Amino acid sequence: MNVKKFTASTSREALRMVRDVLGPDALIISNRNIEGQVEIMALSSENIVAALTLPTAVQAAPVVQAPVLPAVPTAPINVESHPMPRKNTRSELSAVISEIRSMRSMLETQFNEISDGTLQDREPKKTLLLRELLAAGFSASLAQHLTAQLPAGQYGKADLARAKSILAGNLMTRGRKNKFLEKGGVYALVGPTGVGKTTTTAKLAARCVMRHGSGKLALITTDSYRIGAYEQLRIYGKLLGVMVHSVKDEADLRIALDELKNKHTILIDTVGMSQRDRMVAEQVALLSGAGTEVQRLLCLNATSTTETLNEVVHAYQGSGLAGCIITKLDEAASIGAALDVVIRHKLTLYCVADGQRVPEDLHLANPRDLIKRAFELRSEAAPFQPLDGELTLTIPNKGRASNDKNMRGVHLG
What we know:
The chain is an alpha/beta fold. Helices cover 46% and strands 15% of the residues. The protein is built from 18 helices and eleven strands. It has helices spanning 11-22, 45-60, 89-115, 119-122, 124-135, 140-147, 157-170, 179-183, 197-212, 229-240, 250-259, 279-288, 306-317, 336-344, 367-376, 378-381, 391-394, 398-402, and strands at residues 3-8, 27-34, 37-43, 185-190, 217-221, 244-246, 265-269, 295-301, 323-327, 349-353, 362-364. The chain has an eight-stranded mixed sheet, sandwiched between helices. The chain has a three-stranded antiparallel sheet with strand order 1-3-2. Helix 14 links the parallel strand 9 and strand 10 (349-353). The longest helix is centred in the N-terminal third of the chain and has 27 residues, at 89-115.
């Protein structure tokens, strides 16, 4: 095979030389920097075809008659167990050429990124906004989606203000008023272990008692796994003057809900399960088949990563969630990840919890305040954010970004 070497000052120039000499289907074998020069070793598509068709040519060569030798006893050959290779040269050749073209497209993209310099050099305005969004804890996919339509020019405060406004506009909440507490109904707090479901249940219970009185509220717990789980909620109930009912299965839950149907509000504290536990689906089925409409509120830990929160939402979503509550806001170094997941999964954010006090540390979600807080915390996480030269590696390419289904519901204003 005739491998050719091309040397140029830039990757783009070297790649152009390869295309001019060997054609668009040339295969790049190696690419390296030598003394400030880019050296590319490449092979033309004709050489590849010749290499692939060589076995066929050899097979088609005339057969020379060998001299007759005395017969030698041999073991019988099982023809079926030693099939002759099938001639698929043409299909194999097409597959290889298709792969070459795919590799060429990928290499061209990489060479363009290298030759154009870093993202900082090519799009300084976009880079500055990307850094702000990443430092606030938002995902690379959402950050790229927000900056995709950013007009050219100098970066200014108006660009960040616009990004904040878009984020706040995509953060669905129940509003400033306690509408869901006024309306009442049956609410079940669900989520992984240690996310603060029991404490949040107590906070909501206290708010209900303050507005409607203890006679209008009922508390139910399905947590029979944790030692003292029932006792913890029972203590809160005793302080509020509300009885706590414990249920073990779907039949118990149906009976309890039927007996308490005259209550204005019923709060259910469920057992915490890892999002990877198969029993999560059983819990969703239990609440869905209770005979009464149970609105599930997913508790999201603000200290968790975007990847973990994504898993939690997918596991607990089931047939649908009424909404979510972000907990442990006071413990999180960055809250952008939690807000990012709420936005991308289009969840309705009911409340946020930022402490252990009952009921003081429970607040209705305010989109603008939460987005503002996310960016105020970004300075703490700045040392862990990618540098300018690393942003290209952090941000997904356009193909991956467009395949993120959750991005389709994020409106840019």
